[in-house]
Amino acid sequence: MINFILNDKEIKTLENKGMGLLDFIRKDQHLTGTKEGCREGDCGACTVLVGELAGDKVEYKSVNSCLLPLGDADGKHIVTIEGFNLEELNPLQNAMVEEGGTQCGFCTPGFIVSLEGYFIANENVNAFDAVESVDGNICRCTGYAGIKRSAERIVKLIISNQKKSKNYLEKLVGLKLIPEYFLAVPQRLKKITLSKKRNGSNDRRPDYFVAGGTDLFVQKWETMLESNIKLISGEKKYSGISISGGRIKIGGNTTVTEITKSPVMQKYFTEIKKYFSLFGSQPIRSRATLAGNIINASPIADMTIFFLALNSDITFSNGKKKRKLLLRNLYKGYKTLDKKSDEILECLSFKIPHGNFLFNYEKVSRRTYLDIASVNSSMYVELNGNIITSAHISAGGVAPFPLCLDKTSKYLIGKQGSPDVINRAVEIMLSEISPISDARGSAEYKALLLRQLIFSHFIKFFPEMINVEELV
Ligand SMILES: Cc1cc2nc3c(=O)[nH]c(=O)nc-3n(C[C@H](O)[C@H](O)[C@H](O)COP(=O)(O)OP(=O)(O)OC[C@H]3O[C@@H](n4cnc5c(N)ncnc54)[C@H](O)[C@@H]3O)c2cc1C
Ligand code: FES
Ligand code: FES
Which end of the chain is more exposed for a tag (fewer CB within 10 A), N or C? Predict the structure, then answer.
């Protein structure tokens, strides 16, 4: 039994936990304000909020309901556009009308839910972040200026309302931005007993492990409906970031958002927020896990490319035995892995960058945001003075799987980042890759892109040593 609160109503259902939440909301509950657009996590028309108990509070985040397994709603508060309705339009809904933020209206519920999610989750609101919160929502007909003005109007409303409330949600209720029933949700959620059968019968081996579902529910949502799936996104033992034995360890279930916000990661990779702002959208980043990225084995997987350059290892477990291997040795061919079907990727670890080290990550895609890479690359070097003592370069989109540029990296040891060295490194790189022509560009174009990304790494690392004109 899956048991959760949908807006103000308690739900108990025996539907398959692999059903997409969007279908449950629209077809079972007839809440048709949540729209189905792309069904691939790209348009945001299906956005809902998922609220999870954290102590005495509920933490809300926006997600694409088309990619969320119904089973992951268990024990949570799901808020659709109908869950924000009052007797009259609320101030945000009103602002969208008055500021010209809506035309055909198909995208509007998604925008409103994303913005509501931002206002609920952040006591210190500002216009920039409010607009960022709709990075996963697309509007085909209105244009974004009216939507931006609506968001700014509510930011001003919240900031100008100085009245102190004990509870921030009470303030939002007072401003009529959310209905009063939100205040009782934490107590109600505590009473909901998590379904004991959440992960299905144990006597049958699961057909699929599902983490964030952001790959599986794009590729196989109909299969998920019928399958015996094991939901592992809620398993805390596979989550989190820690340091031990001189290594940084990241649980397989850790999401892009958690990796980006981690103080440990920010300390060693000061530009990590910038790098991963190019990964999907906020709703995707808050669900997409590290293990899902690695196991999906896309040749352009962004997190995989990032961690390959850190010479990471990964640990699998089948519940009885653990097995460790270098991430670079996982891939045997296109979507062919050294992995058994019952193995769960527990964690990834890499040596703490030390001494004089440099790291850079680059991604080129057809549009800057909410797009997968045409080609991506990371580079890590350690230096003694100006001499490179250790180097690892990874590259995506130029081989059947995420690639380590071993020969190029080896060539760089003992060298300085001079134009001659860089040009020779690029020649070696070209001998290591095997790009194919596809929707993201011709093989020649991808080789050219990777050359530019290698230049980019070196220009960032050694700006004073490089005269760009000398790079061919
Ligand atoms: C709109 C959109 C935008 C995207 N943008 C990007 C992008 O910019 N860059 C990018 O790299 N990717 C992107 N993706 C792809 C996807 O979000 C990532 O690959 C993500 O990391 C997958 O993680 P997940 O937890 O959702 O995986 P899931 O879909 O849950 O699983 C993917 C695979 O991994 C397996 N798996 C998951 N966890 C484990 C585990 N612990 N052990 C063993 N097997 C496991 C599953 O069985 C499945 O085979 C995007 C996807 C969408 C829909
Ligand atoms: S329907 Fe487009 S993101 Fe879900
Ligand atoms: S108002 Fe028509 S798609 Fe946004």
Answer: C
What is the rounded CA–CA span in Å between residue 85 and residue 34? 13
The pLDDT assigned to 194 comes to 55
- The mean pLDDT value for 208-224 works out to 96
Taking domain 236-470, whether its CATH number is 3.30.465.10 is answered by yes
Q: What is the pLDDT of residues 158-210, one digit of tens each?
A: 999 877 677 899 999 999 999 999 999 999 999 986 544 444 444 467 889 99
Does residue 105's CB lie within 6 angstroms of at least one atom of ligand 3?
yes
CA 268–ligand 3 middle distance (angstroms): 41
213 CA distance to ligand 1 centroid (A)? 6
* 472 pLDDT more than 90: no
Q: Please tell me the number of the ligand nearest to residue 45's CA.
A: 2
Percent of the chain scored above 90 by pLDDT? 89
Q: Which ligand is nearest to the CA of 146?
A: 3
- For the Cβ of 86 lying below 6 angstroms from any atom of ligand 3, the answer is no
Ligand nearest to the backbone CA of 37: 2
Q: What topology is assigned to 2-83+186-231 in CATH?
A: Ubiquitin-like (UB roll) (3.10.20)
User: Which residue's C-alpha comes closest to atom 4 of ligand 3?
Assistant: 139
**DSSP designation for 370:** S
Report residue 107 as tokens: 């995208």
Q: What does the alpha-carbon distance between residue 460 and residue 359 come to, in Å, rounded to a whole number?
A: 9
pLDDT for 197 equals 46
Instruction: Identify the CATH number of the domain defined by range 86-178.
Output: 1.10.150.120
Question: pTM for this structure?
Answer: 0.95
As annotated, the residues of the chain forming the CATH 3.10.20.30 domain(s) are 2-83+186-231
Q: Which long-range contacts (CB under 8 A, 24 or more apart) does 178-183 make?
A: 178/84, 178/90, 178/116, 178/120, 179/8, 179/83, 179/84, 179/85, 179/86, 181/7, 181/8, 182/120
Parts of the chain belonging to CATH 3.30.465.10: 236-470
| Residue 153, pLDDT above cutoff 70 | yes
